[in-house]
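Re: beginner question about structure tokens

> Can someone show what the tokenized structure looks like for a real chain? I only ever see the sequence side.

Sure, here's an example I had lying around. Input first:
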Amino acid sequence: MRRVALALSFLFQGGCTTEPKGPPPMVERMYVIDCGESHVKDLSRWTPSVNIGTAYVFSNHCYLIKHTAGWMLWETGYADALAALPGGQTMAGGRLTAFLKKPLVESLKEIDVSPADIKHMAMSHAHSDHAGNANLFHASTVYIQAREFDAMFGSTPQKFGFVAANFDRLKGAKVVRLNGDHDVFGDGNVLIKSAPGHTPGHQVLVVRLPKTGPVMLSGDMVCLLQSWEKRLAPSLDFDPRQSLRTIDAMKAYARETGAKLWVNHDREQQASIPKAPAFVD
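And the corresponding structure tokens:
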């Protein structure tokens, strides 16, 4: 009886209780935001020996991820100032004309999010269609491959096709300089993967959505689905041979994990994906 009494006393004092566990960390949903488009007259510049003389309109998107640990933005699109130019702006040595219908800040506001709400930000690379609004997120934790960071903030960013004014405020931000892959939240649900070639420190993002499953966001690893399928890397890449090795490595990863590739600039594929303020889960 004495032993029973002691055991009951231990129970009532909480000796055998455990702290209740909350839900596991996860991605809740992702918003795909229209962040501009690029009109080109000769698609073959991006698809060597294919589509010669074919005009095309590249889509361009930003991706807002709602994780239980906070908001993350992948890509920042063309600079919001471009929305004030109805005739667009010619870029890349005349190879394309860029347009933006709605500033990113307005698109975020429709989701009740402001730049200050975004705790984490990363871009595939520092070209203007991906880094145009980077300075808006200087208060976020920013994830950049070390080689990309060095190219962005070195003495000759223009050598890599970068416009320093797009991201100069990030130099004083909380930057996590990466040397390879990185698990953003430490739970395997949002993975940055090193994917060099298009630029020195290009990277892609893998997001594990609760219903859709793992999705790989391409950046400019490839510009079209056919580039992925036919293993095409444009000569305008920083290192076209490295781009091909990256495509091979990411294809192997996709086979192993079942990740679906979403090609940021492929207008036809992107047309089938719900756009903000709707979301994908």
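Each token stands for a local structural state, so reading them left to right follows the chain. Residues 180 and 194 are 5 Å apart (CA to CA).
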